[in-house]
Amino acid sequence: MANHVRFGYDPKTDDYKVVKLTRILQPPGMIWQVEVYSMKKGSWEFIIQTFPLHLTQISDLDDETCADGHLHWLCYCDDLEQKQETIVAFDLGVDTFNEILFQVLYFITNHHGSRFNYLGVLAGKLCVMSCVDHGECEVWVMDEYGVAESWVKQTSCVFPV
């Protein structure tokens, strides 16, 4: 069993919420149990709309990532060829999940070695910092929330050796 907890604020409902995801192994596979605590209501409730079942892992590298009234997780989907990443968003106003299209998930091209992506918030907008093990990094921002075509590169850098 694995737990993933996030805390965030929804400006539309003026409510702070805690979202707890619990991965439960249930042969032959697994399920995600979702619970939400509303500070306004002062109580927990189970969410019927489930976490996307095709996702097998949540990144442990991300901190609290709340933007535009949504909590975010960088998740992985194992397919036969490679481990693919996606961003899952939880709408704190209506307690539902959706996936954010990430058209150019591997932003840095022509690299050798491992890549690490990190979610964050920059100037109130969802962002991704993508780094490769030789020290090259790029920061991309979703300029218009929920619009996959609105990812814009803000900066790039190379860490000194």
Written overview of the protein:
- By secondary structure, the chain is an all-beta fold.
- The chain is built from no helices and 13 strands.
- It has strands at 2-10, 15-26, 29-38, 43-46, 57-58, 66-67, 70-78, 83-91, 96-100, 115-122, 125-132, 136-142, 151-158.
- A hairpin with a 3-residue loop joins β11 and β12.
- The mean pLDDT is 81.
Elements, N to C (H/E): EEEEEEEEEEEEE
Distance between the termini: 40 Å
What is the count of β-strands? 13
Structural class: mainly beta
InterPro entries: F-box-assoc_dom_typ3 (IPR013187), F-box-assoc_interact_dom (IPR017451), SCF_F-box_component (IPR050796)
Organism: Lactuca virosa
Protein name: F-box associated beta-propeller type 3 domain-containing protein
Domain F-box associated beta-propeller type: 5-156
